[in-house]
């Protein structure tokens, strides 16, 4: 049988088979090996950067490579792919996949047994066969890949998909293979259909981040799921299940998740994950929410991305810094702050954006933890210029938010 993607499943299957000999073959939808990943660790406790691992995957697959050199002379064009939204940012329509007979039967079953759960079965729009998944992939390559890169970090109210591929559900359920997608993306670059910055960014997500997270998950389980390095123990707010909040960015994001079981990677990291991080939400609870709410939410996907990357609960194995940000980042990379109940420029007061108050409270709570972090040093040092009165007001505002359901 094929090795299983989630920790513990393989052992349970083998126990069910009792004394029958079992041959285990590598998982079909990953290109790396555990040995390749382990060799990068100079000591058992060392960490490995995704970038170094990504270079190895590029060389192994030959994707965007000319001999042993990367196309364009650079491995990574991420710095060119961080443009905020502008008037030219257009979101092409996604392909539609009306539910077939089997899907309709499953929808009926879900409504019958789980009708009171969060989310909706209305307006189903995902592919459920390889044939339709290939149609979805072709639509992306033809209509959105070229524009994907520059604005992949942008967020717009009421436009959850923008130029993102929405192919992760099909890759994670083995309807599509990551390498076949990378090969097609490379072809788009070679034939002039897509710019290199967009193609490289797409490839990096598939054979860079996806492979890295898979290997990090298996290396650190089962303890990974229990990590809480920053001792964050606040309960998940009720609005995470309903979208009932005055924070426009979070309301839009959660409404999107409730409707589509989806949000693109920056919404996950810099809105939902960022809020959970700076608010001090419990990592296990937050991870369980992501696992329950997202259509691509496998155990191996969410634990390293949520507990590791988003919440820094692993102490910095997945990411060298916590992805904590104030409303300034959200205001720059989205149009959410316009028309919001809260003021993105305020950190204190009833109309102050909670992201600001919680961001500074987070830094004060973890000042000693990040004092020697080379990527956090400048930010943490900025606390020294703040007055005692200002710090007291920030703490009071953060405490007020906690007591009032983060509203």
In short:
By secondary structure, the chain is mainly α.
What does this structure look like?
The chain has 407 residues and is an all-alpha fold. It has two domains: 50-220, Serine Threonine Protein Phosphatase 5, Tetratricopeptide repeat (Alpha Horseshoe); 239-403, DNA Cyclobutane Dipyrimidine Photolyase, subunit A, domain 3. The chain contains 19 helices and two strands. The chain has helices at residues 9-16, 34-39, 50-61, 101-114, 130-143, 145-148, 168-172, 178-190, 196-220, 239-242, 248-260, 265-279, 283-293, 299-310, 327-333, 354-365, 367-370, 377-381, 388-403, and strands spanning 65-66, 69-70. The protein has a two-stranded antiparallel ribbon. The termini are far apart. The mean pLDDT is 95.
- What fraction of residues sit in β-strands? under 5%
Ends distance = 50 Å
| Low-confidence residue ranges | none
How many domains is the backbone divided into?
A: 2
Query: In the CATH hierarchy, what is the class of the largest domain?
Result: Mainly Alpha
- Helix proportion range: 40-55%
- Classify the secondary structure makeup into a structural class: mainly alpha
Total number of β-strand segments? 2
Round the Cα radius of gyration to an integer and report it: 22 Å
Mass-distribution shape? globular
Order of helices and strands: HHHEEHHHHHHHHHHHHHHHH
CATH topology of the largest domain: Serine Threonine Protein Phosphatase 5, Tetratricopeptide repeat
* CATH architecture heading of the largest domain: Alpha Horseshoe
Largest sheet features: 2 strands, antiparallel
Q: Helical segment tally?
A: 19
Order of neighbouring strands in the sheet with most strands: 1-2
The pLDDT mean sits at 95
């Amino acid at each position: 049988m094929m090795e299983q993607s989630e920790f513990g499943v393989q052992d349970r299957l083998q126990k069910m088979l009792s004394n029958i000999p079992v041959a285990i073959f590598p998982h079909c939808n990953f290109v790396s090996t555990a040995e390749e990943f382990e060799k990068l660790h100079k000591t058992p406790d060392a960490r490995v950067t995704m970038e170094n691992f990504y270079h190895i995957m590029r060389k192994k697959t030959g994707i965007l490579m000319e001999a042993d050199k990367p196309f364009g002379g650079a491995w990574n064009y991420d710095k060119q792919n961080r443009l905020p939204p502008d008037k030219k940012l257009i979101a092409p329509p996604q392909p539609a996949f009306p539910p077939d007979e089997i899907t309709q039967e499953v929808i009926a079953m879900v409504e019958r047994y789980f009708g009171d759960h969060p989310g909706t079965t209305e307006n189903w729009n995902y592919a459920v066969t390889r044939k339709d998944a290939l149609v979805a992939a072709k639509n992306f390559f033809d209509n959105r890949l070229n524009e994907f890169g520059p604005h992949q970090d942008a967020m717009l109210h009421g436009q959850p998909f923008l130029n993102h591929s929405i192919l992760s559900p099909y890759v994670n359920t083995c309807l599509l293979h990551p390498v076949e997608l990378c090969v097609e993306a490379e072809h788009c670059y070679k034939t002039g259909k897509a710019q290199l910055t967009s193609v490289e960014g797409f490839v990096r997500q598939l054979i860079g981040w996806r492979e890295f997270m898979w290997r990090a998950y298996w290396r650190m389980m089962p303890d990974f799921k229990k990590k809480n390095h920053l001792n964050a123990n606040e309960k998940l707010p009720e609005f995470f299940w309903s979208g009932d909040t005055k924070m426009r960015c979070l309301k839009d994001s959660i409404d999107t998740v409730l409707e589509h079981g989806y949000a693109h990677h920056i919404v996950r990291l810099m809105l939902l994950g960022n809020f959970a991080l700076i608010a001090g939400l419990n990592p296990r609870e937050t991870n369980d929410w992501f696992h329950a709410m997202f259509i691509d939410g496998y155990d191996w996907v969410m634990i390293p991305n949520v507990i590791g990357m988003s919440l820094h609960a692993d102490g910095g194995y997945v990411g060298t810094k916590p992805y904590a940000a104030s409303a300034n980042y959200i205001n720059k990379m989205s149009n959410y702050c316009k028309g919001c109940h809260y003021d993105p420029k305020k950190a204190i007061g009833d109309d102050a954006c909670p992201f600001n108050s919680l961001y500074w409270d987070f830094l004060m709570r973890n000042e000693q933890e990040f004092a020697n972090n080379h990527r956090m040093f400048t930010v943490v040092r900025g606390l020294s210029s703040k007055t005692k009165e200002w710090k007291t007001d920030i703490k009071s505002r953060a405490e007020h938010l906690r007591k009032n359901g983060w509203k």
